[in-house]
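Our consortium's second objective concerns turning raw sequence data into structural hypotheses that experimental partners can test. To show how far this objective has progressed, the report includes one record in full. It was chosen at random from the queue rather than selected for favorable results. The single chain below, 209 residues long, was entered without modification.
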Amino acid sequence: MSALALIRDMKDTNYTISLTELLTDKDKKVKVRAANVLGKIGNKTALVSFRKAISEPNISVTFTKALLINIGRLGSQEDIQLIRNYLYHSNPEISIYAAGSLAMLGSIEGEEILFEASLSEDGWIQRISYHGLGLLRTTKSRNRLEEIINDENASWKSYALLAYHIQQFDDNDDKKYIDQLTNLAENNDRVVAKWAIGQLVDLLDIEFS
């Protein structure tokens, strides 16, 4: 059976029910994998389970990140405020995934939240907002990133510059992405470039010395 056929079969309600049950499994890795599979199959009925799971107390950072990304994949306007709360989370790993999730929803309200965050006096909030703006690829987000890059007094310009370049990358050309990001790293903050690779794409095998 091809991978495509398998995914089509998994969209069946019975498979979705079985996978959503795994969101409460005792094994953390099982829960994360179940969330990711549900997100990738694209069955929106999983959203109810995602929303319930993320509201549970004491869930792991890894599971929270998986839920945020997959709510971003499948969610709607209804999820904007839920995700926004995590944008200001005390754990930076969670807040950056919330920024990505807002961008993935692709709504005007989500873009406004990221735009406002880019004006924050909190340096970390500024940086994660650039991440989200870079994923949006809208005229407004591109103009905001250009404004930051051209502002002599702006903070964290390396992050804005990376986000701006990531916005221009061709999703269908991974090699081009790697080449451009690597070249950018040569002329800017290599630590920032490594962060961008780790957070924006699953290319963790690339090493920067």
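The partners drew two points from this record. The CA atoms of residues 190 and 209 lie 9 Å apart. The radius of gyration is 18 Å. Both points have been shared with the crystallography group to help prioritize constructs.
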